[in-house]
Design goal:
alpha/beta; 13 helices; two-stranded antiparallel sheet; AB_hydrolase_fold; about 40% helix
């Protein structure tokens, strides 16, 4: 009798834990090109300690995902892990999608596809284009311009998956420039970690990002978090995208391109502020 009672108690405890877990506000954090779920380690820790549920995805060929980024040629292929993840969620579950840098393209794609599953879309120093790279102006506004640091051959290490005569299929900022470009205000240990973990990003796939506007997508609230000292997606580019497709709110962080390293507590505070303003709690 005692053993049976123990088993039933444990079952009830497990059910209660599952109910509590499912009721938590769920943040899904999406990295930028060359990054991975590892980028968010500080934010994930702060959120989970505070009682929130957090998922840090690796897009295809990023982080510890086994695919070779040089072979990823379409945006749909690259963004497949996020789309598969949202597809697997219960119909009534909503998440707060957070995208950094090129991760903004992934967030927009997901919002068009699953508007009922996205409670809030947050863009951090991110490419925020309603339909992706449709026009030349979209490319000017949304793609990084690192020409001030040299010619592409000097700024990037590049791979040519379609052959040496074709445009590069993947690239990563060369190690000697990574801190200067993306992490100039971040702790040295974080830029050192990034130098060890960054992978080539599928630039050919990102250039092909085009989205068919989904019904209900415009009803998903959007927040933009600007980064005032960004050398990748420069403030003027961020402002141009904000003006063209205005979000509900805009906040500014005094940070480099990587506020999850350089201003984690301020970024965490803003993310929680945006969630609670929509009535989301732990």
């Amino acid at each position: 009798m005692g053993e049976e009672h123990f088993v039933e108690t444990e079952k009830m405890k497990n059910v209660q834990e599952k109910i509590e877990e499912s009721s938590k506000t769920h943040f899904v954090l999406v990295h930028g090109i060359s990054g991975g779920g590892w980028c968010w380690y500080k934010i994930k820790s702060l959120m989970e300690i505070s009682g929130y549920k957090v998922t840090c995805l690796d897009l295809k060929g990023a982080g510890i995902h086994p695919a070779d980024p040089t072979t990823i040629l379409t945006f749909d292929d690259y963004n497949e892990p996020l789309i598969d993840f949202l597809s697997s969620l219960p119909e009534n579950e909503q998440v707060i999608l957070v995208g950094h840098s090129a991760g903004g393209l992934s967030v927009t794609d997901a919002t068009h596809r699953f508007p009922k599953k996205v409670r809030l879309a947050v863009y951090i120093a991110a490419t925020m284009l309603r339909n992706g790279f449709v026009t030349e102006q979209d490319v000017i506004d949304g793609a990084p311009d690192l020409s001030e640091f040299g010619e592409p051959i000097d700024v990037y290490d590049m791979w040519f998956g379609l052959g040496p005569e074709q445009p590069p299929t993947s690239a990563v900022i060369t190690k000697s420039l990574q801190r200067k470009i993306a992490y100039q205000m971040s702790p040295l240990e974080d830029s050192t970690l990034a130098a060890m973990l960054l992978r080539p990003g599928p630039i050919q796939a990102l250039k092909s990002a085009l989205f068919k506007e989904g019904e209900g997508a415009e009803e998903v609230p959007r927040i933009y978090i600007r980064t005032a000292y960004d050398r990748v997606v420069k403030p003027e580019k961020q402002d141009a995208m904000i003006k063209k497709w205005p979000p509900q709110n805009v906040y500014t962080l005094e940070s480099d391109h990587s506020p999850f390293f350089s201003a984690p507590f301020l970024l965490f505070g803003l993310l929680i502020k945006t969630a609670t303003s929509l009535g989301c709690s732990e």
